[in-house]
Amino acid sequence: MNTELYRALKEAGASDESASKAAESVAAYDAQFADVRADLRLLKWMVGAILAGVASLVIKTFLGVS
Predict the structure, then answer these.
(1) CA neighbor of 29 nearest in space, from 59, 53, 5
(2) Which residues make Cβ contacts (< 8 Å) with residue 30, sequence separation at least 6?
(3) Which of 13, 19, 22, 40 has its CA 20 to 30 A from that of 3?
């Protein structure tokens, strides 16, 4: 649970239950975004490896390097 958000909601006048649920909901979204970031990082490495392979094939083809 995001305690900073919980405290801010409590200071704004939200009930204990609704502040707690909102803070837990935000924490769940943070976890989902962490998964997306990890997947994106993996995809970036995969694209980089593919581009390096394609570049090596182009260099080999057009420059005649064996």
Answers:
(1) 5
(2) 2
(3) 40
Specify the pTM.
0.56
Contact 1, 21 (CB under 8 A): no
Q: What is the pLDDT of residues 3-62, one digit of tens each?
A: 888 888 888 888 888 888 888 888 888 888 888 999 999 999 999 999 999 999 999 999
Tokens 């239950």 belong to residue: 17
Q: Are 1 and 23 in contact (CB under 8 A)?
A: yes
Query: What are 31's two structure tokens?
Result: 């976890």
What is the residue whose two structure tokens read 């409590």?
Answer: 10
